[in-house]
Amino acid sequence: MSTLPPISNTGMLRWAWRQLTSMKTALVLLFLLALASVPGSLLPQRGIDPIKVRSYLTENPTWGPILDRLGFFEVYSSPWFSAVYLLLFLSLIGCVVPRVGVHFRAMRSAPPPAPRMLQRFSGTRTVEVTASTAEILATAEGALRRGRWRVVTGPVDGPQWLSAEKGYLRETGNLIFHLSLLVVLVSVALGGLFGWKGNVIVREGSGFSNTLTQYDAWGGGRFVNPQGLPPFSFTLDKFTADFERGSAQRGAPRAFEAEVSYRTEPQAPVQHALIEVNEPLEINGAKVFLVGHGYAPVIKVTDRTGAVVFDDAVAFLPQDGNFTSTGVVKIPDSSPQLGIQGLFLPTAALDAVLGPHSTFPAPDDPALFMSAWKGDLGLDAGTPQSVYRLVTDKMTRIGLEQLKPGQSWKLPDGSGTVSFEGYQRWASFQIAADPGKEMALFAVAAAILGLIMSLFIRRRRVWVKVVDRDGVTVVQLAGIMRTSTFEDEDIGVLAEDLDLVQDALESAGQTAAPAPLIESAPEAEAPKEES
Amino acid sequence: MNPESLAQMSNVAIYSSMFTLALAMIAFAASFAVGQRRPVAVAAQQSTVSAGGTAVLTKQAPGGVEEPGRRASNIAISLTWLAFILLLAGVVLRGIWAGRAPWGNMYEFSITAALGILGVYLFLNIRMDLRWLGLFVVIPVLLTLGMAVTVLYTEAAQLVPALKSYWLVIHVLAAIICAGAFTVAAATAGLSLLRDRAERHAEPGTTPTGLLSSRVPDAERLRTLTNRILAFAFPLWTFAVVAGAIWAENAWGRYWGWDPKETWAFITWVVYAAYLHARSTAGWRRNRASWIALAGWVVFLVNYFGVNFLASSLHSYAGVSS
Questions:
Q1: Residue limits of CATH 1.20.120 in chain B
Q2: Residue-wise pLDDT tens digits, A329-353
Q3: β-pair partners for A209
Q4: CATH classification of B1-37+70-158, choosing from 3.30.300, 1.20.120, 1.10.10, 1.20.1300?
Q5: Residues B256, B245 contacting (CB under 8 angstroms)
Q6: Are the beta carbons of A202 and A425 closer than 8 angstroms?
Q7: Which residues pair with A282 in a beta bridge?
Q8: Global pTM?
Q9: Cα distance between residue A242 and residue A256, in whole Å
Q10: CA nearest neighbour of B245 among B268, B263, B270, B272
Q11: Could you say which residues from 224 to 253 on chain B have a Cβ atom under 8 Å away from some Cβ of chain A?
């Protein structure tokens, strides 16, 4: 039960801080974090698929905008998601940072003196000894120190007891784990502020140089200077793709390879590399990933006078797994202006239901279906147009045709000729730089190490006490678990620790043979104090 | 050997494993039904154990009264081992047939996950007597395998380029062992809740009666066991997620992109982190922690099955949506 907050301001602040850094708050925040992550996996997210977000908004005109205003399409950068994880990290700082100091002091200080009554601890042993107190304690200390225990003896004027502690690394690991999570957060933030990434489609034989204008899409952090990107460039020499031809998963991709030649800067020598899906190319701190591919039919258009008004490969965008691809050609320089909507089919098929479509992603039987338009392309209107869409508002259709590579089509109204010369491949690349990722990797490695330490190292104390009992010198051995995860194993671990000391005494010949082993009744010493 | 016969052998091994498991399930169930209350001496020893915190693992003392149903549970364990070996053979043959690690689609994940659950259970059973848990492990394994051979079955095929990486072996292996551990921990957590309820309803000083609760260890031991399994699984799950992130960085150009699979892996991680925190929070370390362990398993299942079927994810290479 939480108490009511006191009235004074500092008291209030202290109360709030205590609440925030309590374990229960941390638990609640962890649940909130889990819960807050869910909607981002159910609703489309702008950062991943902006087109899906747009179509969701059109399909849900009532709820869509409300969800949008509440940040449900950018969950992981929304204020409420940020609030949860920032509070969680604040709570973590409040919990962990003070413990760093406490632990640092604990690691440097000696274990506390042995308690007066050792009998009350479970598993206490009493062993009759023959050697002197000093010898006994020296043997025990030697054995424990070899086992990397921290040992102290006392009292100062003629030691009678020994107190030893081990397993400090448990708390060290716990602190490393939590502090590493902070470092991960910082690394992610660094990546967000100083990182950038862009996407670009490059045709076979064409080049790309790393400047903003060459990208189809680009986004960068707040501290990235878009004019100062590393000045590398590359050319896509050859792209090859393999697809499954067997019956199982027919048409599924099997291998993609992009052969490129690149320069790290304009004057640098040309180097060659092969980029594959799991094998990005690293240039100047940026990585070039192969993320997609498609076809670019080579189309040549002549006008009514026979003059060539267009001759180029045009990247078409794949619409399905078999690479039925669409694209457009805009020819503003002919009179009247011409536009072509095209459908490129690597393995062409035509049926009544699906219309023209491709049945296999490889170019086994390529064909180009076209619809030609003339009129006003609308390029002068000032509104930006997509290069993949033809605006046909002010155009009229001339005709439809299908061509095999090498074939030509004389437009029915005589306004020109369209030839399907062949096709090229294109590859799309994601080029990204994330200066925080090495740090993030280092931090998570440290976190896992810390986690293992904090879960499996046991912090425990043992005591050795030499006492005189009815004229017989005996040694009492006892121990406790300082922290405990698995109660049923603790007793076994402590027994092994006591064995360590007892064996050392026995092999030093300091015990009375045969050593009688008296175990006290199992009495509970609640062995835990941990958060 | 020709590929077709390898495929057939793999399938035969998996069906045989399921048949053997079904027999094991019957034997486990029989030992449950036949086994009356544990002998009083055992119960008494156990209650001191939990009170004193001084247990050695509860191996039965030799020479004592043989518990009823013990023979049936011994037979069940032997059958489970046999089923494990058959399933291992099935998975390995599948891998040889495909010429790669057999983790390319949901069918293969599922048979390997079933192997993982059995493996974790049998491994723990070597270290402590867990025959009482067998029924609750064999049932989810049979369900997983049943779903694999009916709904998820796909012919072996090559991998899509995105999966061609040694990270497939590392990332998926870690995730599959975690699947086993999470499932076994869910069984012990669920039983601890039932047993805890029975203990609260039992008259003071007696052990609970009833079909389920009288045949399993006391609730505190079940909770400790759950904690031990999850303490092992949580760092491994962290590693599995990190390995996935490293792989994603290599394949997709970012180490974390809130893809639905990644998101649910993160949620799983957070819930199990909450479990570990709950275990050291006053008032939470008993039944609430057990509920969190169960919730973690449900979230894990959503991640494992749900994401493949429901959401459009970069991880949707399940090979089931043809």
A1: 1-37+70-158
A2: 998 888 788 899 999 999 988 888 8
A3: A233
A4: 1.20.120
A5: yes
A6: no
A7: A287
A8: 0.83
A9: 7
A10: B263
A11: 224, 227-228, 231, 234-235, 238-239, 242, 245-247, 249-253
